[in-house]
């Protein structure tokens, strides 16, 4: 009986010690968990190689570990990764997260980009559900490093495949024959140009001379233009000034003549209405008087002065024998 009682006491003591150890471990876990800060990261890229317990580093410095990985139900293209970080790690605004893959198959979460003087990333008081859907702050993501290469690998392979197909079509037998013909024609053209090298050199020399002569002609034209401008400024402008003065004088004379004609117009009208008819009558009287004088002169010639006093004497009658 005493042996059995000792075994029972030993078993009870061991069980109590185990329970105390379990409570101590749980207490330590809760204590350490209370000190850590949790954040959510929503990756749109693949998180291959990432698992619970994977390391989290800030600029290469160990900062925590991954606690949970799951698809986000509202958008299955996003992968939610919960990380627990050391409280001494400053997660400031501007900090971003990336998945650092390696060729060994393991991946880590890399944090960097925090800006000095910025506040820490926290859940806002307003729209907290939208900004922090699981009650913890969210760290933005960016694609970089090997992850970006791996994400773009399918598109790169597709483009390489399309490029290979186009190169195959371009290098078909028909196109190869065309390219060979083009190369042959190019060789012929090169040979012809080589044979005509002296002629081309002579043509270039003549062209150089023509360009030089054109430059000289342009310079002479410039000198002529300058001389013409000088002549215009020195000779033509004074002549134009004299011509303008002559035009002004002629205009003044014309105005004076117009005024004189205006003043003489009443006398001219009176002369045409009165004097001209009187002069006509005078001319008529002079013509009549001239005819009378002609008649008198004729009588004097025929009958002498007596013809003017008496009638004309008849000739004596002489009878025939």
UniProtKB/TrEMBL annotation:
Q: What is this protein called?
A: Phospholipid/cholesterol/gamma-HCH transport system substrate-binding protein
Q: What is the scientific name of the source organism?
A: Hephaestia caeni
Q: Where is this region: Disordered?
A: 302-321
Q: Domain Mce/MlaD, which positions?
A: 41-113
């Amino acid at each position: 009986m005493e042996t059995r009682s000792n075994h029972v006491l030993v078993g009870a003591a061991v069980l109590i010690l185990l329970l105390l150890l379990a409570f101590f471990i749980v207490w330590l876990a809760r204590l350490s968990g209370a000190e850590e800060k949790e954040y959510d990261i929503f990756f749109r890229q693949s998180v291959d190689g990432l698992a619970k317990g994977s390391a989290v580093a800030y600029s290469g410095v160990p900062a925590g570990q991954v606690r949970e990985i799951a698809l986000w139900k509202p958008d299955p293209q996003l992968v939610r990764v919960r990380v627990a970080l050391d409280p001494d790690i400053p997660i400031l605004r501007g900090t971003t997260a990336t998945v650092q893959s390696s060729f060994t198959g393991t991946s880590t979460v890399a944090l960097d980009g925090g800006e000095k003087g910025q506040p820490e990333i926290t859940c806002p008081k307003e729209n907290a559900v939208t900004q922090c859907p699981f009650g913890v702050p969210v760290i933005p993501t960016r694609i970089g490093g090997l992850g970006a290469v791996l994400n773009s690998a399918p598109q790169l392979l597709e483009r390489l495949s399309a490029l290979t197909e186009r190169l195959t079509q371009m290098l078909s037998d028909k196109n190869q024959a065309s390219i060979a013909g083009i190369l042959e024609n190019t060789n012929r053209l090169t040979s012809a140009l080589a044979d005509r090298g002296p002629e081309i050199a002579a043509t270039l020399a003549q062209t150089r001379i023509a360009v030089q002569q054109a430059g000289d002609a342009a310079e002479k034209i410039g000198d002529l233009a300058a001389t013409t401008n000088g002549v215009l400024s020195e000779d033509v402008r004074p002549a134009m000034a004299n011509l303008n003065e002559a035009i002004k004088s002629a205009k003044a004379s014309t105005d004076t003549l117009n005024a004189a004609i205006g003043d003489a117009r009443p006398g001219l009208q009176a002369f045409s209405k009165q004097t001209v008819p009187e002069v006509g009558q005078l001319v008529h009287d002079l013509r009549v008087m001239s005819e009378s004088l002609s008649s008198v002169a004729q009588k004097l010639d025929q009958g002498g002065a007596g013809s003017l006093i008496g009638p004309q004497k008849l000739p004596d009658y002489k009878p025939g024998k």
